Amino acid sequence: YRKDRRNRMAQIIEGSLEKRPSHCPSCGVAWESTKDVYAHGTTPKKRVIQLTEINNQPTYLELTIRRSKCRHCSVVSANHLPNYFVKRRKSISVKLHLKVLMELKNPTNCKKVASICKTGYQIVYQTSLQIAHYINDLDSRPLPRVLAIDEFKATRDCEGAMAFIAMNWESGQIHTILEDRRSHKLLEFFNGYSYEERCKVEFVVMDMNAAYDSMVKKAFPKAQIVIDRFHIVQHLTNAFKMIRIQEMNKLN
Ligand SMILES: [Zn+2]
Q1: Domain Transposase IS204/IS1001/IS1096/IS1165 DDE, which positions (predicted)?
Q2: Ligand 1 mean position to 69 CA, how many Å?
């Protein structure tokens, strides 16, 4: 236990990152034995990563990072922490970053989130800026020539029972995900685009949902509806299965 730089009593977990990568990050040769690589001290500074709190106290991981020197190219490199744990050059763990994101979902302010997550104001502020940029990028994305739409069961905290997904059929990129698949919500979203922009959609690929049919005709006046092969096969399979069960039940 020690005071952190925000003058709060914190839990410090000390350790050393010993695990050496399997290959040289510089020349790519496999590091199999001491003939390929040898230990070369540690980085001058310890790596400090803030984790999610433990026992309501800010928690830090303080790591001594070992370095290795490649015998093939003589390049010294520091051992790397896995990306799922902490991103490069970040001072907080991925899990703590996700916690900040979850807190930012609620109408709140950065100072409050920083205090809940026991982290710094700047970290929360930068994260909120990232979200703002991300959302702006989504908004300005033009409508594709071929739009594929469907619904899916999303997370429990969604407003609607089913969520909505739209994809650029040609590029395979997700265009948008909405938490409510009801027609009026979809129209509200697509009507955010200008009439000209909506006319650029030539084909809408979808299932046999009648509600979408009228929505598509309203939102994309020039588009032709294409029933997607997957849904035709699925429909046939279901019909076939129903008949099979009916027939089977007749037999005692
Ligand atoms: Zn090397």
Answers
A1: 147-251
A2: 8
